[in-house]
Amino acid sequence: MKKSRVLRFWSGLCGLLLLVFLPTVMFAQWSVPVQLTSDPGADLKPTASVYGETIPWFSSSCLTWESNRDGDWNIYSVFNTNGDSWSQAIAVTSDSGADLNSSVARDDSLFWAAWQSDRTDNRDIFVSSSTGSTWSTPTQITADSNSDENPSIFASSYSGTLWVVWETERDGNWDIYASCYNGSAWSAPMSITSDSSDDRRPCGICSAPWLYCPPLVVWETNREGDWDVYYSVYQSGSWSTPEPVVSDPGDDLRPTLAADFFGEGVWAVWESNAAGNPDVLCRYYSYFSGDWEEIDTVTTSLFRDANPAVIDFHLPVDAELYLGCVLWMSDRDGDNNIYSYEILGGTQPVDLNAANDSLPAVTGVTDYTYLWLWAIWQSDRDGDWNIYGSYQCYLIGVEEQAEFRSPISESRLFQNRPNPFTRTTIIRYCIAQRGPPTNQLVNLSIYDLSGRLVRTLVDELKEPGYYSVHWDGKDNAGRQVSTGIYLYRLQVRSLGGEQARALCSTKKMVVLK
């Protein structure tokens, strides 16, 4: 990737440079692979819920996949609520038909799975929900006499809606359709494409919840002779006219999406053989400009790099550090293995094994002290196909000092992010060194507009350095505050001498409920 793009890749700030600082724990090696399934049958095509759809911090995650362990093909799942381990496999379906090609998402309170099933004699789309244990009775959302396949499910907690998009053969060729759930019922299928060519493998996403950003869907299409990636945005009650994300002489396939952390846009990532062999490319869409930035490369190897997966995440140890991870399958080491690219850590293998590892997915879980970034994939290393995972662990903390980076010339209070926010926000500040190394008394407090103290977040001695603290929207008594504008004030005092008051800075933030 070009250096100018590296500095702001994943920032989503569209023109602002990303301040590149390394946090305390950054870009560790991936863990030894963890075997998540060990059934004699085949466990294939893992998918993972990601935080970008609904919540800024992902305290739990869900994986789904298809399995023939019971003789028929059914959908299974595991849940992660503590970071470094997963639950036992839980059946989503147990039908005598073939349930395939699952997708999973999370809204405010539930995990949702969607898949295709031939239990009704033709292939239709079904959905089910779970609180993290058992799954609800499947709901059928399509009932056409032609095939409906390859669903992608995604949620928007801000608008309170859930979407499923899929490919359908109901018009004689493959087109993209969608249905929306408003909390009580699924809408009638609505057409996104109606071209005479084939439109396949849709992927949809809504951005972060504190801004209303419309649903966006990408897919692969051969309407121009070769395969390209197109997109459509849902606005004012209808889907926009499809337009290209990329249109070049090669084949562009398997597009996937990740919302940026602040909800200002999305990243599209796909595989392309425009340069002769498959590489992974990416492009950023800004909701503010309504347009795509230039196409950039994630890989440029002489081997096959395919089946990408992507996530955007944020490490709250620095004022401006927002990062991302792309996974893909590569045969650069002779076998098919999973590789990763992280914006500051570069390319590295997740695992090297003399087997076929393919179809990666990516997700994460945090307990507000550590963040576990998980790579998930299917592997035949044990003779049959099973689901494997590997993770990196980042120390983040509710309040954590970053690694010392350079002398800080002045203490500073940064704008909280996100702002406005609904559940939690991160406030960052830095403490300058005054004379000989010494601790300074730091107070960070939140007030309402009348000047009443709402919450004291920090009141202790601090060494010079960069800090961040998270506020969960509660006052000192543990009560949730109401919607409105609040002030947060940083006061830094030396322990004596001529600079008794080193800093007093106040900023505004907005709480939305």
From TrEMBL:
Pfam hit, one: FlgD_ig
Superkingdom as given in the UniProt entry: Bacteria
SUPFAM superfamilies referenced in this protein's UniProt entry, alphabetically: Sialidases
Residue ranges of every copy of the FlgD/Vpr Ig-like domain listed in the record: 442-491
Classification via InterPro entries: FlgD/Vpr_Ig-like, Sialidase_sf
Protein name from the UniProt record: FlgD/Vpr Ig-like domain-containing protein
Organism this protein belongs to: candidate division TA06 bacterium
Lineage: Bacteria, Bacteria division TA06
